[in-house]
From TrEMBL:
Residues 70-134 form the GCF C-terminal domain. GO terms for molecular function: DNA binding. The keyword Repeat does not apply. GO terms for biological process: mRNA splicing, via spliceosome. Belongs to the GCF family. The gene is Gcfc2_1. It comes from Bucorvus abyssinicus. This is GCFC2 factor. It is found in: Nucleus.
Amino acid sequence: DNSSEFITKYRTLRRQVRECSGEADHHEGMSSDDELTPTEVTKFQKSRDNVLEDSRKVFEDVHADFCDIRKILLKFQEWKEKFPDSYCEAYISFCLPKLLNPLIRVQLINWNPLEQNFMELEEMPWFRAIKEFSDARNKSESK
């Protein structure tokens, strides 16, 4: 590919110029020519917005009781309290990660730990709901 060959030659030339001029504080990979162009940034932002818009529609036709992690876990907690033998025989603790996975993944689509003001995982509502469920499960098991 001619463009990648050109970029490689350009970077080599710039490195040689820096070495000749005595610029020793340059760090490889930190050059401004590695940044995205405004067109690429706009294209990325538009693509990102489309993905986020589509992700909001994923569960729009699902009843609220079945797309809210807290409500789902409350139903499982009730099942465990009312019918503990049935709950254990169904191996629910092994099924919950697979059941909750799509719900959590949709909520993590917009999460970016590299942004300045990102939300910690432990602060997210789905994480707190799972933690509360685990704490309630541990309390009932200790009884």
